[in-house]
Amino acid sequence: MQLDASTSGSFDFTVSTSGSLTVSSTGLTGPGYSFGSTSFPTGPLNVSLDAYPVTVINSQTFSYSAGGDQLDGLVSWTAVTNASSLSPGLMGTLVYGNATGDASFLADFGPAGVANIDLVVSNLSARTFLDGMTLPGVSELGTILNGSITPTPVVTPPQQQQQQEIAEPASIVLLASGLFVAWRLRCLRNRISHPI
Predict the structure, then answer these.
(1) Gyration radius from the chain CA atoms
(2) How far is CA 70 from the centre of its chain?
């Protein structure tokens, strides 16, 4: 699922202590979607990843409704990415339920599940890279340029896989046992009806 540019609201990236940020929003809306309010701190900048990891539990409500497809859920942000860019990103996980829609939408998302969510933030108010903001209290506002939501595949737990793998050999053994018993009965019948 692709998200277009937001039409109202913004994310606020504020330097809380040297090397970390506070990300907050009073909510954002765009064509067919909306995010609720949120506020969470990041860890210090990981220079090699060009990202601020988010290590605290956080959540932001999310609703999608377009073309007859609909889902609601909670986003947990895991990182602020592309910190040395005028288009930083937010990466996270969406846990959703109550999904409804056409067959194609439900084939991708199912009625409930987990999806990866990635947003690209643009229109930074001061045109400053996030990793260049070092003084506490300095902030940058940005809106959603675009985004994507990709459902994660459902993986069968190993215990269920093992049960499925065992079920087939068990039925083969049962079939072979039945054939053996039938053969032995035929041999006995032939021996009784044709004594030596």
Answers:
(1) 28
(2) 16
Q: What is the pLDDT of residues 151-191, one digit of tens each?
A: 987 655 666 555 555 555 556 665 666 666 666 666 656 66
> Do 43 and 129 share a domain, yes or no?
yes
Same-domain status, 134 and 161: no
pTM over cut 0.70: yes
Q: How far is CA 63 from the centre of its chain?
A: 15
- Give the H or E element holding residue 8: strand 8-9
Q: Which domain holds residue 174?
A: 155-196
Joined tokens for residue 61 = 């409500």
Instruction: List pLDDT tens digits, range 90-130.
Output: 999 999 998 999 999 999 999 999 999 999 999 788 888 99
Same domain, yes or no, for 43 and 86? yes
Number of domains present in the structure of the chain: 2
The vertex-32 CA angle with 112 and 143, nearest 5°, equals 105
Q: Region 146-154: what's the mean pLDDT?
A: 89
147 neighbors 3 (Cβ within 8 angstroms): yes
92 and 45 co-located in one domain: yes
- Closest alpha carbon to 144 in 15, 6, 12, 7: 6
